[in-house]
Chaperone protein ClpB
Amino acid sequence: MELEQYTDKAKETMVEAMESARALDHQTITTAHVMKAILLNNKKRFRKLIELVGANYYWVIQETDKILISLPRVEGHKNLFIDANLSESIKNAEMYAQRFGDKFIGLEALFLGIVLGKSEISKKLVNKMKNINQLEELVTAERRGNKIESQSQEEGGNILDDYTVNLTIRASEGSIDPIIGRDEEIRRTIQVLSRRTKNNPIFIGFPGVGKTAIAEGLALRIVREDVPEVLLDKKLLSLDMGSLVAGAKYRGEFEERLKSVLQAIERSKGEIILFIDEVHLLVGAGKSEGSMDASNLLKPALARGSLRCIGATTLDEHRKYIEKDAALARRFQPVMITPPNTNECLSILRGIKDKYEVHHGVSISDSALTAAVKMSDRYITDRFLPDKAIDLVDEAAAKLKMELGSKPIELEDLEREILQKEIEREALKKENDFESRARLTELMNDIKMLSQRSNKLNEQWKSEIVNVKDLSSNKEMLEKFKSELEESKRNGDLQRAGELTYSVIPKLEMEIKEAEKRSQNAKQINPERVSEDHIANVVAKWSGIPVEKLLGSEKSKLMDMEELLSQSVIGQKKPVECVSKAIRRAKAGLSDLKRPLASFLFLGPTGVGKTELSKALSEFLFQDREAMTRIDMSEYMEKHSVARLIGSPPGYVGFEEGGALTEAIRRKPYQVVLFDEVEKAHNDVLNLLLQVLDEGNLTDAHGRNVSFANSIIILTCNLGAEEFIKPADNKPKIIEQNVMKHVKNWFKPEFLNRLDDIVIFNSLKINDIEEIISIRVSELKQLLQERNIDLVISEKAKSWIAKNSFDKEYGARPLKRTIESNIKDLLINC
């Protein structure tokens, strides 16, 4: 059987019919085999045709199966033969293909050839189908005058339905969210589309700024007839790149499909505008040795104006793909799409709020929208508005909906308590003593009281669920009525439009408003309103920032900051105060929001608590002593080592891995970054830190901007440490002055001026060592408690340990060795 004259889909159908015949041990391929293959693989399309002529789709399949079962089976045969009726049906299909003006035989022609033939299945269909004579007319009408030009074109009339999405139809159905703002960009788009040639705008902007939304906004305007006459009644189709590429197995098949789409659009004579999202994907698509890529198919049509096309791509991809092809770039007119500011973003969220309320079945407060905009702008720095704010609202609403569908925590706790008491009651029933009987009576009363409370809460919870569903149903109905109102206005049905405007919609809006007011005033177990707290919880999960910080509820904690830090950092009152004041300034919003929360240079001899204060600060702010990135600057003494912080340049080993510093901040932006022994780093590394301290950001090797606005930068330095071990007659002020001389001689003034504070740590005294011993002993006690060992150390022993481990030059570092050798070694055998 020659299959070269068939479309790809028709080929697949004929091959499947052959395989079906082999599987059933049939020596002959009949019209029944082909008919079943057509119906099973194209259900939606042919079911509609069959039902239009008065038959039932499933009845046709049943009758086909009956014929197949009745056919004789021949086991062990090798060759397949074509039934005479099928040969005649194929000739009929060729005739219908010529009549339609098709270059290849498609499924429609094959279907008509079988149904209007003389086979057994044909006779059954003719007897069953009341309007069989209209079948050819129905197929012709369905095709809408389109012709099959290539083998990849499966359906004569639906090439655009296969590979594009009609945005104007989606807009008329109310499936597109309202577009708030962006009037200037839409006007610029309309202006370019109105040109005679090169009428092809291309949206260029960061991911998530609303490029696709502007195309949808244009579709909404076309539907509302809010466009110039040149765009009235036009169709805006979005090219579906996934469908275009899917299943294109053979060389040139993808290009054939794209060419068929372009030819269908050109035949519309300007009635169709094509929108290509991620237009850069066409550059290089389908390209192989000796052939051109898909973008070259677009160029002639784009240049002569026969194809009006809107493209969308990001700045990076436009530079990487489009700008390199000057011939393609000059055919598009750039329309720059910038991220909206916070006020514009808030307006966008208010405009689409109703859609999200209907979808999730919850209410969204205006304070939640405001929080979503502010928090996403402040804490989610690697994405762009309005996308990140919309995602916050969407996820918070989804989380609340999930909570509404499950039992409240209060009710679950009550039920667990009742169950525990019931278990205890059953055990006490077996006892006869007075105390057990008294306890049993008490339990019975408790269970009764708790059950009443549980039943009451359960009823309230179920009532709340019903109310939420009713409110959600009303909101959904309101959306439908609003869509109907738009359609009535377009169709000129003024009576229905007036009824909806002045009666139906206002009444429903009043009911919704009253229901929301009742729910706000009532004390609910599970609130069904998305609040600022819900948004903060989502941001906390995304960024790792504590919820208390987001909600500003850590004020009282900040006031006690010195006291809490001093519990871990001993003998450093002034450094603790300096750090606490700087952190409070940052938390109060009195510092530059773009710079790091705080930046410090810690000076002093070794072992006095510089690293310990960093860990204590991390524990205070993030409830985790290890929530910090420590970078040992002794590893960055070479000039080339700067690449380890931000990532290797393209072409070098390690480019894909990213930098140690930038990747740590990208993954967890809210943390303490400790640069240990910063004086050992190469000058180029220090120059890199200048940008972090001043601008609060770094650009990594991949060109990504990494923000340090939510980080605390701490640099430790041992310069001038020898000043602390000089004779004791030196006063603290003189020591500080001498240390600062060393620091100023080593670091550049612009580096020191960018720091929030330079903190000088004191040398530890023997009293400080004794306090540190108490802390270490209490830590050791906790470890021993797990082994049921109680440790008691006398004051005399503490004094002995302090004297034997005190060293002004090394601070508290010898203390660890003294405790290990004199206490832990004795505990090994316990």
Observations:
- The first helix runs from residue 8 to 23.
- The CA atoms of residues 805 and 815 lie 5 Å apart.
